[in-house]
Amino acid sequence: MPSPESLRSRPPVVGLTTYLQQAQTGVWDVRAAFLPAGYVEGVTSAGGIAMLLPPQPVDDAIVERVLDGLDGLVITGGRDVDPATYGHAPHPKTDEPARDRDAWELALVRGALTRGLPLLGICRGAQVLNVALGGTLHQHLPDVVGHYQHQLGNAVFNTSSIQTVSGTRVAALIGESTDAQCYHHQAIAELGTGLMASAWDSDGVVEAIEIPSDADGTFVVAVQWHPEERLDDLRIFAGVVEAAAAYTSGKAQVTSGRNVS
């Protein structure tokens, strides 16, 4: 684990994906790239440097160039993933897709996984990670669990009791259980290749997924809840920032070795 001194001397750069849609501010009502401040504050409070990554045209060279500048990546919350990306027809309650954002984030996730870049998914981000690895989603949880407690509506977060799986990264970060802020009407169904469920709620809904730490050592964790809504508890953000600090330390050592040679 990186020391506090190393985080201060060389803070890692952590990219956060953003919305791209109509937004109002003051007299303006324009299409805009934006992100709720809690995500940025979660990264910076944990010792990282936040860099916003708005959706843009997908091109392998662009994705690789963006990832070159990052030490970690956070795929943030937002509207439902397009069911076409995992081979399903849309449910009547599924959001109209933001295909530009879907394509951008799926490309970033796949690129990050290829290079071993530390990755955290939050809510939609957990679903994007699962879909990127071939998994599927429950498109409307009330059809599965019989109630609306996971998404009360009107931007009101509900508290869910989360139980972690022993021996997982998520358990190492937050312990056996936690109370989490949830706002989602979709959830992970079939797990993507290489992923495991590392936390559940009392309804049997998957609340966290990860690539097991013994696979290749890369930090790949995603939670269905919203840690940015509880910034008195930075453990999830600290996990990705510390992994990013270790990643950037490794890059620096490689660069130094090349310079010496």
Automatic annotation (TrEMBL):
A Gene Ontology BP annotation from the UniProt entry: polyamine catabolic process
Classification via PROSITE patterns: GATASE_TYPE_1 (PS51273)
Pfam family, one: Peptidase_C26
Keywords: Hydrolase
UniProt xrefs under InterPro entries: Class_I_gatase-like, Peptidase_C26, PuuD-like
Record's GO cellular component terms: cytosol
Molecular function as annotated in GO: gamma-glutamyl-gamma-aminobutyrate hydrolase activity
Protein name (Swiss-Prot/TrEMBL): Gamma-glutamyl-gamma-aminobutyrate hydrolase family protein
The species this protein was found in: Mycolicibacterium hodleri
Upper lineage: Bacteria, Bacillati, Actinomycetota, Actinomycetes, Mycobacteriales
